[in-house]
Amino acid sequence: MKKQPDFLAKIKQDFDLVDGQARYEAIDPGQSFIVQAPAGSGKTALLTQRYLALLAVVDSPEKIVAMTYTKKAASEMRQRILEALKEVNNFTEESIKNENLYQQNTWHLATEALKANNRQGWGLLENPKRLRVKTIDSFNSYLVQQMPLLSRFGSQPGITQNAEALYLQAAREVLNEPSVVEQSLHLTALLNGNRKAAEKMIANMLAKRDQWMPLLQVSTNQSDKALNLALQQVVLAEFQVLLLDLQPIMQYLLNAKDILIQVLAPSSAELDSLFALKINSKMVNDFKVEDSQAFKVLAKKLLTTKGDLRKTVDKRSGFPVGSAEEKELKKEFLQCLENIATADIHGKSVKALAKLAQLPYFEYSESQLTGIHDLFILLKNATAFLKIIFSQQGETDFIEISQAASASLGEKEEPTDLAQRLDYQIEHLLIDEFQDTSVSQYLLLKKLIAGWSKEDNHSLFIVGDPMQSIYRFREAEVANFLDAWRGKIEQFPLKKLNLSINFRSSSSVVDWVNNTFAEVMPKQSKIAKGAVSYTKAEAFSNDEFDNEAVQLNWSVNQPKQEQIIQLADDVCACLTNKQSEQKIGVLARTKSVLTPLAKELKNRGIPFKAVELERLNNQQEIQDLEALTKALLHLGDKGAWIALLRSPAIGLSLADLAVLLENKTEPVWQILQQHETEKFVQLSSQGQAILNSVLAVLTSAINHVGIIKWSRLIKETWLALDMPQALSDSSQIQNVEAFWQMLARLEQSKTGLTQLELDKTLQDLFSLPDDSPESHHIELMSIHKSKGLEFDFVFLPELNKSAMNDDKELVSWLYFQQEGVRQVVFAPMAQRGKKAAEQDTSLVSFLQGFEKEKHAHELDRLFYVACTRAKQNLFLYANITVTEKNFQQDKPATVKEDSLFNCIWHLQQEMVQPLLQNLLFESKDIAEKEPVFLVKRLAENDSNRFANFPKQEVKKYSHLNSQNSILQSVPSEQNLMVTEVGNLVHAFLEVWGLNGLPEQLSKDQLGIIKQQLMSKSLVGESLVEAEKRVIKSLSQAIKNPKIVWALSAERKQASCELELTSRGMVFDDAETSSPQQQVLQQHIVDRTFVDDNNVRWIVDYKTSYWDESFKQTKTEFITEQVAKYQPQLARYGSLLKTLDGREQCWILYFSYLDEWVEVSS
Q: Fewer Cβ in 10 A, N or C end of the chain?
């Protein structure tokens, strides 16, 4: 063992903690550890101490690399390290003794780290980026950048968060590839010719290729004989496991065998297999492949097709009863069945026999091998096509970056120069949340430490909790942690440490979790099946609360709305009784569970925080905006135009629509342009009035396509069509705002606003979260997102709810190790449709059984994560559905197998039983029905609703549209030029207000000015003039001392483009507002700040143009402009006065004239 650093003598072990010894050992920088840190055990604090200890012994901070999974976690770790270093000067050797032992130890470690920092001139406090705390994805990107050729990337591509479209494109390419046409036909035949399904399945495989690509490499190196050997080993191993479960009934199986030998036909294959079977206590170790068939015969005779133990037998099951001897054999066999039922108290043996009967044969069939090889060829080619598509698009996904990073390190036997350089550069590696590593990430780690040994200066510190491994859908593989937990990774040794103290939860919550999950999770961990055994925790806190810490709320056949109301009542009661700083978390497996609660809380006026909870693509106001956007994007989009005409604001009747669309092939917009034809006369008077009103707006909008930005065009068209009138509450206004933000993002994206991108983005459009201080008392989120968080009160609703099943895979696989050698078993996808019955699917079912077990174990862990978020109280809810038919037949209540409630159902059945007494069933006529949502339409008799500008609008007051809507008329080229000059000057001044003024306009900035003006459709003389005005305005602003002063970073409480909102306020420059209308208005202040005399300055930029040819003098022109814009400044002043009440100074800065004018307030 390496000699410990001298400073560790100052570190004290906390003997009050049962895991104090482990926490003390983990700090030693000379040793390598794998630490299991359950929920609430303070692993981030331990990582911080470890990092500080390492800083004290290295000669460069870059030699320490800490990796975690999220930017938030990386930021938190870096912040804790820096805070510890900054705290050093706040204490002395004496004063630190007054703090707790953890703080004392952290201070001593930080002191040593700071000494190293000062001694070697690192400057960590001034340059914290030298602390290499990274996400795993950012570390992969770093490796790729170091060796672009070896990683097979040239210039660094962009990383897309959603590569589904690229996966589908690669799938289509491979199915069209002539060289693999035979394999493509084979796949589509399995799917009964469904090419779309084939494309989707290949795309799904590409999305998780980091899982199967390493396994393909293994299989490529194996012959068919080796593949058969791997299959035989895994099936044999499963047989032996099941045989152990058969031990309680083994004697009765022997009796059944003896009886069946006398009953079966003399020349049958079943009889031959039973004769060869030797049933005894030693057969688990002596089991032969040939024995499997005999057990399948036994299972067939003893069990029903559903896998239940038979209650009787007859001629159909091989037991004729003609003679006395046959009757006696039947009687003995029935007694044998009764003995099995008696001996198998928990039904475990019968289940094992049923599983045993379904096990596949020990060898691949020829068709299975062909299927495997064909699918491998398709997948390899699909991967190649995906690489080409990534290159063409200039973007990639995280998997590709991870694989490229691995390639940049070479192989263990042949490391690259980069791998050897990193071996020198990285001495100490810390990895957080190790249970969430993927197959490819684990492989990367092995390559990084390939040259390490315990004798050199390297150390590895791995922290995680396999009980919290819940991200298999992101390719996380808990087997990686279990593999490392054996005490080494490859040949590099790791000492195992267990943390057991829970600093988060009350003792009552910890006790309940211990008692429950010791019965829920498996007794032993199993790598191949992703099984993780439970590790008991001990509460640090002895807090006892008056109310019951864990409250179980089970119900039977409770109507859905009653469940929501009960949950909302409980949350509101908790909100009323809790202390101000305490938080409530409502967690669910799926967002759909939380949506009804969110609506109920909104109806009650209870603010809450929920990020990406409510999808908006099904909301009426968003569908109306989608129809408007698509109609303007593509005049031939018939569906969009029909939806727009039927939207609540326009409201054309179905009868009128039928008249319009009599010619089914003609585009809708083309028909609308023929409004003077006889067809329009056939419309109702209401229909004619509607179309006469909207056609002017739509014509003007279409004439503006390509002239102004899409987002502005769509928004002003929406306003001009009076579509805000259909909004009935504030949540709908917020939803519309989310749509505008989405449009703005799309416009700025690489692809721009297209129908395809709009469709994709709408799928992930969510309502905007409430960010008010009051909303932070209650948070609604998925369990997966809650990991790493904690709440004083946790509510878990609808535990009986199941999630959608995963799609079937092209290839099923099982990875395992036999005597240290990596092996894999594959099963090709089975035939779908009518021909499926002709195919042996036992191999697919067998491997999917492993997958199902892995899923079930992860479900247990997901439930554990949810429960361990609670600090003080935990509230659980589940409603069991019992049908009248099952109740009358006295069938036991059951829960959904794929639900969280199923995890604890065996512990809660007795508690539910009393709820089933005297259960009443409603008649079908009065049973609960799903509510019917009707489309809200504006009043049909409001024929003048287009006469006025929208009454319930969101007016965005600014320099851009203080005049009439752009849709009143097509702008002249002169007006367009004036508008875009103003936009661009404002944009530059905003950026300079945030980042500082340049000394002069650079070549790059001059190029940007021209490019931006050209993108706004300015050409010829208009472009030249606009460019001249912008450059003159900005050049003068840079040199104007008053502007330099106003935009200085020294200004207090400064803002650029400050957005203010008012409701029901009347302003002199407003068009149609009144307090009674409760108009919601937005205002943008160009620049505001507070000076040293506590005066609020309001500066508004104007690009007004004047030259010597004007009849007015310059002074007269400025006086006129001041009079024009004084009400606008008054509006800003009034709003800011209500906020801070300060004395104000109003300024108009005319940039083209370089005039700074103080306006009287």
A: N
- Buried-exposed string 986-1023: b where 16+ CB fall within 10 A, e elsewhere: bebbbebbeeebeeebeeeeeeebbebbeebebeeebb
Residue 29 CA: distances (Å) to CA of 1, 5, 429: 12, 8, 11
Cα–Cα distance for residue pair 83/51, rounded to 1 Å: 13
Q: In the chain, which segments carry CATH 1.10.486.10?
A: 616-765
Residues 6+ apart with CB under 8 A from 473: none
Strand, coil or helix: 347 = coil
| pLDDT digits 0-9 by tens, 457-500 | 899 999 999 999 999 888 788 999 999 999 999 889 999 999 99
Of 138, 113, 107, give the one whose Cα is nearest residue 125: 113
Phi (first) and psi of residue 1132, to 5 degrees: -60, -45
Q: Could you give the residue range(s) of every CATH 3.90.320.10 domain in the chain? A: 973-1159
Enter the tokens of residue 987: 């944009």
- Which residues of the chain are in CATH 3.40.50.300 domains? 6-137+426-503, 513-611+776-802+858-937
For the entire predicted model, the pTM comes to: 0.74
pLDDT digits over 309-353, tens only? 998 888 887 787 778 888 888 899 999 999 999 998 888 999 999
d(CA 1145, CA 1133): 9
Helices and strands, number each (H, E), in the chain: 42, 26
For 204-235, letters b (16+ CB in 10 Å) and e give: bbbbbbbbbbbbbebbeeeeeeebbbbbbbbb
Q: Which residues are registered as beta bridge partners of 822?
A: 817
Is 157 a residue whose pLDDT tops 70? no
Is 80 exceeded by the pLDDT of residue 981?
A: yes
Q: Is 1115 exposed, middle or buried (0-12, 13-18, 19+ CB in 10 A)?
A: exposed
Backbone phi and psi for residue 613, each to the nearest 5 degrees, phi listed first = -100, -55
CATH 3.40.50.620 fits 6-137+426-503, yes or no: no
Q: Which residues contact 619 (CB under 8 A, 6 or more apart)?
A: 732, 735
d(CA 332, CA 329): 5
Per-residue pLDDT tens digits for 1039-1074: 999 999 999 988 988 988 887 777 656 665 544 334
CA dihedral (232, 234, 240, 245) positive or negative: negative
DSSP state, 673?
Answer: T
> Collapsing DSSP states into helix, strand and coil, what is residue 1056?
strand
Distance, CA of 1007 to CA of 598 (rounded, Å): 49
938/950 Cα distance (integer angstroms):
13
Structure tokens at 279: 């049933």
Among 140-149, 277-286, 610-619, 675-684, where is mean pLDDT lowest? Answer: 140-149
User: 10 Å Cβ neighbour count for 117?
Assistant: 20
Higher-scoring residue by pLDDT: 191, 1016? 191
Domain spanning 513-611+776-802+858-937: which CATH class is it, in words? alpha beta
> Which backbone phi and psi does 705 adopt, to 5 degrees?
-60, 130
pLDDT tens by residue, 43-66: 999 999 999 999 999 999 999 999
- How does strand 778-782 pair with strand 1096-1102? unpaired
Q: How far is residue 1092 CA from its own chain's centroid?
A: 47
What φ, ψ does residue 329 adopt, rounded to 5°?
Answer: -65, -40
CA torsion sign, 156 to 157 to 158 to 162?
negative
Whether residue 1095 contacts residue 1158, with contact meaning beta carbons closer than 8 Å, is answered with: no
**CATH class held by domain 973-1159:** alpha beta
Q: What is the third-level CATH fold of 616-765?
A: PCRA; domain 4 (1.10.486)
